[in-house]
Specification:
The protein is an alpha+beta fold. It has 5 helices and 7 strands. The protein has a 4-stranded antiparallel β-sheet, covered by helices on one side. Strands 1-2-3 form a 3-stranded antiparallel β-sheet. The longest helix is centred in the N-terminal third of the chain and has 23 residues, at 2-24. The N and C termini lie far apart (41 Å).
Length: 156
């Protein structure tokens, strides 16, 4: 049942996105909900004899050399890498003046994370926020982790 709800959510989401896209181009009513199928990780739009196939881009896992070269500013600012047989993550604990400051920071990060489609694992207690970043679809660290961690540091 949860899977069906998720499919329904994506159908509505992508139908609205496609409608808005074609509405901007003056093609009202070109696609309808029944024309859209979501087959993870593919999004298929079928209309008459036309079929558009879009594949969501999968993140690329960074090599050890890329991590060593790119992540040094993060290590310098307090991020720590935690690697074991099941995960490869970066972590940091942020401390703010009070709860409002911590929550405001989290809200700004949440908006950026949503735009990036890269969501942190985090825990908040009063003025403290503990953050864990990893890219699940590549089972390791990616450019997304670097960008979001850098954004978090710039806000702090």
């Amino acid at each position: 049942q949860a899977y069906n709800c998720l499919i329904h959510f994506y159908k509505r989401l992508f139908t609205n996105m496609i409608y808005k896209l074609f509405l901007r181009n003056g093609s009202r009513g070109l696609f309808q909900a029944q024309d859209l199928q979501v087959c993870s990780p593919f999004i298929i739009i079928q209309h008459s004899n036309v079929q558009i196939l879009s594949r969501r881009a999968k993140s690329t896992k960074l090599s050890e050399e890329e991590i060593e070269g790119s992540f040094q500013p993060l290590w310098d600012s307090g991020w720590v890498r935690n690697t074991d047989t099941t995960k490869d993550v970066i972590e940091k604990k942020f401390v703010f003046k009070d709860f409002i400051s911590a929550f405001g920071w989290m809200t700004q990060v949440a908006l950026k994370a949503e735009k990036m489609n890269h969501h942190p694992e985090w825990f908040n207690c009063y003025n403290k926020v503990e953050v864990v970043l990893t890219t699940h679809d590549c089972q390791g660290l990616s450019v997304k982790d670097l960008k979001l961690a850098t954004f978090m540091d710039e806000l702090d």
